Each structure stands twice: as structure tokens, then as C-alpha cells.
Amino acid sequence: MKTYLLISPQPWGKMYLSKHNYAMELAENGNQVYFLNPPSYKKFSASPELEVNEERQNLFLINYTLPSTVYTLRFKARPVHDLYLRRTLVKQLNRLAQFDELWCFEPNIFSDLKTFNATKKLLFIVDYHDNSALKKVVTDVDGIASISKHILDYFEFTDKPKILLHHGLNKNFSAIAMKKIAEGLAYAAPLSIQVAYVGNLLQGDRVDMNTLRLIVEQNRGVTFHFYGPYEEKANSLGATINDKLRNFVEFLKAAKNVRLHGVKDQLALAKEIQQMDVLLTCYNYLTDYNKSSNCHKVIEYLSTGRAVVANRLFAYDGLRELVEMPNELTNENLPMLFKKVIGNLTFYNSPARQKARIAFALENTYKEHINTLQDFLSSADAFTNVYKTS
Q1: Same domain, 336 and 198
Q2: Inter-residue contact 298 to 323 (CB < 8 Å)
Q3: Using one digit for the tens of pLDDT, what is the confidence trace for 159-170?
Q4: Strand (E) positions, the chain?
Q5: For 77-128, what is each residue's pLDDT tens digit?
Q6: Is the pLDDT of residue 387 over 60?
Q7: pLDDT tens, 252-293?
Q8: Over 60: is that where the pLDDT of 308 sits?
Q9: Residue 311, Cα to own-chain centre: how many angstroms?
Q10: Phi, psi (degrees; rounded to nearest 5) at 162
């Protein structure tokens, strides 16, 4: 068993992203995992204040507070900021354990990882960023992982080994998927069509609100279930609020065929979306910083077996039998495609199509990805400048 340090840009909360899921999977496999939350800042603080708490067996959450002046230094005097972290925070973290592996999901806080006492260091970037810290931190890692070719292409400036994965599937979803396969798949046309959209709605213009609104308005007989944050309170994923977004949320609240469920725990969400006929996602390519390259929720959608309607996702261009999406990067034809799918659900949710979707999802569990990453890190030189897909 190994000891891991995972550095996350998103705090531990009710909604789990890839870094949270990797932490839980590693801990359940018997490894000792330290999960470093992003910093908080306090005006009167002389040095970093660390607090380590056991979240569950083998998994420890690290919270830390920095002086507010350090936040200013991060943007005004980066070398001083980095020196401060090396001499204070990193030293304190190194006292916690001798880390076998460090997985850094954080693209902003650290400019280098060389002073961490980790045997292997992995940079795992799941969102597109472009900053000097990210370019510097690459020099200290053994490999770079991502879920998007668009993101990996950013690292063309370095010959560090790179690996391309799909998003991972959590155990709560995979357990239900395996049970479905074992019991046999069937589908009958419903009396009332149920559609789910899962994700953080508070992402400014990244979500294509105009198209989503049009789909809801054009399909009054369909019930749309929205899962995820739609209010700032209890949202651990961050928010970008504007007037357009506020108006969109108010529209959803008022729509008679919309149900806003808010944040659900992972198991409850996994169970509830099994009842859906269609799973929907709708991002705006022009305003999405990841350029619609991949989407975490889709692998969870596929695990249900049910039809997935999405904006164009490059990761699924070669998997068109799994995801129904337009050829265009814009979403002008997405409402028409949605109508086509709900008008022929017995075809799109046939047992053969359900089986193909579930099989693909089960090939991309977090357990499988961890095994792949272990092979990658143990022989990273063999992967130099090669994109390996799972």
C-alpha cells in the first residue's frame, strides 16, 4: 500500500469531482490518502495553520489558512509567494508523511513541486488553464494526465510523458450498472418522459442557457429534472453569477415541467437518474473554457444505459453510437435532435444500445484508471509524447 498526497483546487464538499473520487477510491483500496483542500486566507495570521481530520478510513482532509498578504503576493510578487510556501506550508506537509505519490490537480497555487518529499509526481489537469505557474510546475513532474486532448495539447512545449483518459465512473454508479447487466436490460415506452440534467448551473455563460430554455419550452409534456447547485448557498464548486444566469434560474423555478433537486449525495443521485428516459447536457462551445472537449457527467449518464443527448463533445466523436450529439459546434440543432430522440425512445433505449453504453462506462471506472495511472508512472519514459487512451 502507498501514501498519497492529492492537491485539489476544489474543496471537499457534497458534490464530488474527479479528484474527490480518486481520493476515495485510493483510500478504499487500503492506501493512506491526504487530500489538500484549497487555502483560506486570514488577515492576522503569521504562518500557515494546518488542520488534519480523518474524513473516512485512510482518507485525511487537510485544511490550511494563509495570511491574506500571501494572496496578494500570488499576483503581485509570485517568486516571493512561492518562496513563502516552500519554507512554510510545504515543510509542514512533508512532516505528515513520506509520500509515495503526489497527484496535483491544482493549476494555480504551486509553481513547483520539487520540495515535496514525494517519490513520484503526477500533474492531473481536468480544466483548461494558461498561466506561468502551470508552465513552471511541469518541470518537476514525472508525467501529465488529462481527460481532454484539448488540454493536453497545451503541454506541447514539454516532452514530459502524457496520458489521456476518459472521465472516471464512481462505485455508486458502477455497482448499479453491473446489477442492470446481470438482471437483463429492457425498455418500454413511458407514459410520461423524464429527462435529467446533472451539473453546476452556476457557471456563468459556460452553460448554454438559451438552448436549454428553448428545449424546456418546446417540450411542455416532458418533465426535466435538474440536479446540482442552482443557488450559491451550499455550493462547494464555485459560482460565476450574472443577470442572465439569475433570470435563467428564475425561469427554471417557474416552469411547471421543471424539478430543481439541488445537490444530492452521490448514491442518491446514482439511484434517481436510473429512472430517467434521457440524460441531457448543454454547454456553449464559444464560452466553455474546455471547448466542449469532454464532460464528467456523461460517463455517469452512460452507466444508466439510457439515451444521452449532448452538445458536441470531441471525446465522443469516435463514439457516436453512445452519445446523440449534433455535428455542429454550436447548439442550433440540439433542440431538434432532442425532439428526434424523445420521439423514438424505444429505438434509442433498445437493450443493445443500453448494453453498449453501460459496457463503455464500466471500462472507465476510477479503479481501472488508477491501475492505468500506476502503470503509467512506473514506466513513464515509455509514454513520452504518446497519448494513451483508456
Answers
A1: yes
A2: yes
A3: 999 999 999 999
A4: 3-7, 32-36, 40-42, 49-56, 59-67, 99-104, 118-125, 143-146, 162-164, 194-198, 223-227, 258-262, 278-280, 307-309
A5: 999 999 999 999 999 999 999 999 999 999 999 999 999 999 999 999 988 8
A6: no
A7: 999 999 999 999 989 999 999 999 999 999 998 877 767 677
A8: yes
A9: 17
A10: -130, 145
Give me 180's grid cell: 442492470
388 located within any domain: no
Domain of 340, in residue numbers: 171-362
Task: Tell me what pLDDT residue 390 has.
Answer: 37
Give the domain CATH number at 38: 3.40.50.2000
CA nearest to 109, candidates 136, 142, 143, 140: 136
Does one domain contain both 124 and 186? no
Per-state percent for the chain, helix, strand, coil, to nearest 5 = 40, 20, 40
Residues 21 and 101 in one domain: yes
> Is the domain of 70 the same as that of 98?
yes
Q: Do 105 and 10 share a domain, yes or no?
A: yes
**AA identity, residue 9:** P
* CA 368 from centroid of its chain's CA atoms: 17
What is the count of structural domains for the chain?
Answer: 2
Q: Which three cell numbers stand for residue 324?
A: 446523440
pTM of the predicted model over 0.70 = yes
Asked if 244 and 317 sit in the same domain, the reply is: yes
The confidence band for 13, taking pLDDT boundaries of 50, 70 and 90, is: confident
Closest CA to 355 of 197, 189, 183, 167: 183
For the chain, the farthest-separated pair of C-alpha atoms sits apart, in whole angstroms, at 64
Q: Which residue has the cell 464559444?
A: 286
